Amino acid sequence: MELLYGHPKSLKPVLTKYCPGCGHGVIHRLICELIDEMGLQGRSIITNPVGCSIWADLYFDFDSVQPAHGRTPAAATGVKRVLPDHLVLCYQGDGDLAAIGTAEIIHAANRGEKFTTIFVNNAIYGMTGGQMAPTTLIGQKATTAPYGRDPGAPGMGYPIQVCELLATLGGTKYLARGAVNNAANIRKTKQYMRKAFEAQMRGEGFTLVEILSACPTNWGLQPGPAEEWLETNMIPFYKLGEIKNTLEPVAAEGGKK
Amino acid sequence: MAEDRRLMKGNEAIGEAAIRAGCTAYFGYPITPQNELTAYMAKGLLDRNRTFIQAESEVAAINMVYGAASAGARSMTSSSSPGISLKQEGISYACGADISCVVVNVARSGPGLGGISPSQGDYFQATRGGGHGDYYHVVLAPKSVQEAADLTYEAFDLADEWRMPAMVLADGLIGQMMEAVTLPPDRDLATLPPKPWAVGYQEKTGRPFNHISSLNLMPAELEKQNIERFKRYDVMKKKLQRHEELNVDKAELVLVAYGTASRVALGAIQMAAELGIELGLYRPISLWPFPEKRLSELAAKGKRFLVVEMSMGQMIEDVKLAVNGRSEVLFYGRCGGMVPTEEEVLAEIRRILKK
User: Fold this and answer.
1) Structural domains in chain A plus CATH codes
2) pLDDT at position B3
3) DSSP state of B76
4) Among residues A63, A176, B125, B325, which one has the fewest Cβ atoms lying within 10 Å of its Cβ?
């Protein structure tokens, strides 16, 4: 009998520490499904961020490197330059990528480093307990924005649209934004990730997939309403789709599946 | 094969030695007085199809090293004092994750932005685990261009052997001056020691996954890891203490100095000899582990020590720990980029000895 759907080989059969409704588990699964489908389990390396997904190495059944907070793109640069025929993934949250690690992501992208960044945007700091992130929406409450993010007098700045910011850089080849709030968006996100992974293995240049993901615990919502909140608040500001695609024609057609 | 002898700047000799030692990935950021080294690595590595990146910051550079070293490459970064401060986060992570790499500090004066002249004010930072947490790593201090090349070459082997960063602590004078240097042979990359702990090539070996990480949220486990690491440090302290000594048996007063300061001390000792004053020289080459064993023996024999440093007095603390109150430890230092003259040191010696 043919197995049509099962637990990905690259994902260890263990329970995660993630909260109910958290998007990390789905995103981990998408990564592993693609690695299995591409036959790359023995040739994949993930650089884990600091944040909730700091434990990624408990879940992925392939090599990993754990650098300092925000330095993941620099470390992934080192790994990929030494092992250019490996699939190197740089997994980052919004605090890691768009606050403390802003310099590292911009310059890795600008150099056209040939790894893929999976950027999980849940508009909040998860592990440290709900502080304001660079991607926190205007008016969204956080422990460090108790009255909501206010770019006015309190000077809390504006949410950063990372894909749009990176799109101006010459080294970026593929920047897409997906979401994991419903089945349709999960499927589309996987397509974006496949394009990015395949482009990386062809050695095309910097690829990044931003993924809007719920953080019910720190949003103060039940998992169901959190997915609705993502739909009605995040997606209107963080537009889904391919923000930049300058891949060679073979990739632009979307590969096999 | 004929000896490969050249006239080189210290910074360039360090670069050439690193390339010959099998450094395949270098990451740097401009800072004076080590810029020739980064430029040398750019040409040397790009010409050999190895990895060179001018990073966006020292912080990025050390983390690129972290990644490349995790993937098993002989990897190096270099900088000068303020830049080395920025790298300390990454050095702490590399020590916590037990990965091998080489860090060169062509030190300048501080604190803060300080100046660009040579200084030994980074001794504490280098030898005390300059970042957060409980750790040490190898620190080697060259006194000449020749030794800068030799110790850089050896640093790669020590880093691999002991699975930790190895630091070469030079200063702006060693980096900038030109001397004749006999270069070490080119290492065949295929003969470098294997690193079964590194990431990559999992499918070729069929081994289980490797995780390079300094994270451990279980206090009991983390304590155990740290204790294991300190057992390794104890072995290193037995095996790696290195120094050079001159006339320490005959002399009653022994000058203790490393790197550039040891050259000045030697000059003062030679001037003193002409006046009939007999002195010894004790020059630590490994700053960590500090060569305390022999120093302790000399203290037991009642020798007095004059520590000469280009700082307000940092290595003197290690000398005092080794001497442990058994004899007198005196100090003469200049700082802020001032290099003491032989005459100044001689004057201090004559004042101490009342001769």
Assistant:
1) 24-252 (3.40.50.970)
2) 85
3) E
4) B325
Amino acid at B214: S
Q: How far is CA B215 from the centre of its chain?
A: 27
> Would you say A129 and A143 are in contact if contact means Cβ atoms under 8 Å apart?
yes
Q: Which domains does chain B have, with CATH numbers?
A: 5-200+230-235 (3.40.50.970), 243-353 (3.40.50.920)
* Number of Cβ within a 10 Å radius of residue B265: 30
Closest partner residue to A74 (CB to CB) among B67, B72, B214 is: B67
Residues on chain A bordering chain B, Cβ-to-Cβ distance under 8 angstroms = 41-43, 45, 47-48, 54, 57, 60-68, 71, 74-83, 86, 103-104, 106-107, 111
CA distance B71 to B99: 10
Give the ipTM: 0.95
DSSP A196-222: HHHHHHTT--EEEEEEE---HHHHT--
B197 contact residues in A (CB cutoff 8 A): none
Which residues in chain A show pLDDT less than 50? 255-257
Helix axis angle, B315-323 relative to B292-300, nearest 10°? 50
pLDDT at A254: 52
Q: How far apart are CA B59 and CA B85, in angstroms?
A: 9
Q: Which of A9, A59, A63 to mutate to test the interface with B (most CBs of B within 10 A)?
A: A63
Q: How far is residue B15's CA from residue B38's CA, in Å, rounded to a whole number?
A: 8
Provide the whole-model pTM.
0.96
ω into B30 cis (within 30 of 0):
no
